[in-house]
User: Fold these one by one.
Assistant:
Number 1:
Amino acid sequence: QKEVEQDPGPLSVPEGAIVSLNCTYSNSAFQYFMWYRQYSRKGPELLMYTYSSGNKEDGRFTAQVDKSSKYISLFIRDSQPSDSATYLCAMGGGGGNKLTFGTGTQLKVEL
Amino acid sequence: GAVVSQHPSWVICKSGTSVKIECRSLDFQATTMFWYRQFPKQSLMLMATSNEGSKATYEQGVEKDKFLINHASLTLSTLTVTSAHPEDSSFYICSARAAGGRDLLDTQYFGPGTRLTVL
């Protein structure tokens, strides 16, 4: 079993839709939870990070962490074609200062 | 914001040659840099952690003699793929962690990546 599980998609939604992206994890030692956005042939860009259970909102993005269920989510409101990318969840604090990444979910927002 | 650059952005080389990839933190000092590789439609796999002035720590299964890492200054780390073979073709990405940061991962910034193709 992988430490972090993420549905690879692809996920296709119409413009304006609410997008829900999710990851589950097995290592209860993880303390930091992040979402990165990666455009094709580019490096990942940090979108959101949280350190505790609950919600964190930044513009159209909301990150949600449920440590009891070992489940994290990223919600994108009013999705735009420019949001089309691969979204990677990442977790850390489980040992050293390394990040453990999910496989990424490919999102396509269509006009 | 913090910017990390990589050079070259892409490289094509013949099998058996060595390739050096540079990772630079442009506007901050990085005590720790990380090197990842990413195959198509797969996630980032950590190869090694590089601390300025000390030897890199390699992940299990990564050959340290094949992937030489040097972190000689607070703004530069290099990855040299020695005697490259076609199976080494991949997307190599570095990230840099700012000096003085807490032991938190929110200060890790990624470079744009280097695409290596070995013929």
Number 2:
Amino acid sequence: DTGVSQNPRHKITKRGQNVTFRCDPISEHNRLYWYRQTLGQGPEFLTYFQNEAQLEKSRLLSDRFSAERPKGSFSTLEIQRTEQGDSAMYLCASSLRTGGPKDEKLFFGSGTQLSVL
Amino acid sequence: SQQGEEDPQALSIQEGENATMNCSYKTSINNLQWYRQNSGRGLVHLILIRSNEREKHSGRLRVTLDTSKKSSSLLITASRAADTASYFCAGGNYGGATNKLIFGTGTLLAVQP
């Protein structure tokens, strides 16, 4: 399977615990995005990487959230001291930006569904 | 924050009928994209229209873009039960410090067999 892979698919945790999600993008893609989606809403942008550099972060990404993309390959998203409001689907997407942005489209993984009890 | 809103929020049609979804967005865009999402799954890219284009076709899909009204529409012709999903428009906002897609709230389409 050469698509975007996310692990785990589901995560149930207790409030206050730390969780980490992993995303493996399509191998030749240089951009990687994290989005969060709650029930009945569209995905909301969290952050994105160009290779290993994190270039933009949303104000939704509080100090409890941190994302990394070491060596420009896979990425991890960590949430510390989880709160019930963090319950959502966390989506990862990758893209290949070769020139201008006008034709850039995203390839999404199946997401990690987080439930904070 | 969401880019804009989609209309209707939910749509139920019979197989073989056409489905039209509308999207309004707030900021300037470089392109407008439509994605489909089946329940509990990730999003799948359907079609992209550049800001300097007015209409584009791909198979049973037809998308229009009116930048003066900041609106777009997606038409699915001859719908099938397998088209049942949520559909999201997304504005490509690239320039300066920002480079991202901003998604709308989505239209839930149910195609009855």
